[in-house]
């Protein structure tokens, strides 16, 4: 199976604090994946980076075999997500 998501050596620093440190992750086509961990572990930050709601400091994120930063609109038009609790009106 091909990898739908490939995260390679991703770092994220906010105000000199390293939030993500060398994250590597591969998610294959057809897999369901969840992030578990204590508060402050970086789960939401990683998801925000995967959705381009926050930029990474270094490393790369590929979705559908394409660099997320270079093909942002094309990739985001093909995915959907809900982060934390949705607010329904």
TrEMBL record:
InterPro entries in the record: ABC_transporter-like_ATP-bd, ABC_Transporter_VariousFunc, P-loop_NTPase
Organism: Streptococcus infantis X
One Pfam family per UniProt: ABC_tran
Coiled coil, from the record: none
GO molecular function, one term: ATP binding
Keyword Cell wall biogenesis/degradation appears in the UniProt entry: no
Keywords: ATP-binding, Nucleotide-binding, Transport
UniProt protein name: ABC transporter domain-containing protein
């Amino acid at each position: 199976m091909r990898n739908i998501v490939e995260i390679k050596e991703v770092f994220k620093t906010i105000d000199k604090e390293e939030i993500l440190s060398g994250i590597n992750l591969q998610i294959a086509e057809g897999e369901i994946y969840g992030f578990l961990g204590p508060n402050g572990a970086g789960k939401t930050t990683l998801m925000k980076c995967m959705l381009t709601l926050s930029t990474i400091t270094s490393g790369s994120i590929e979705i559908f075999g394409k660099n997320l930063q270079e093909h942002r609109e094309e990739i985001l038009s093909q995915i959907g997500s809900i982060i934390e609790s949705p607010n329904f009106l």
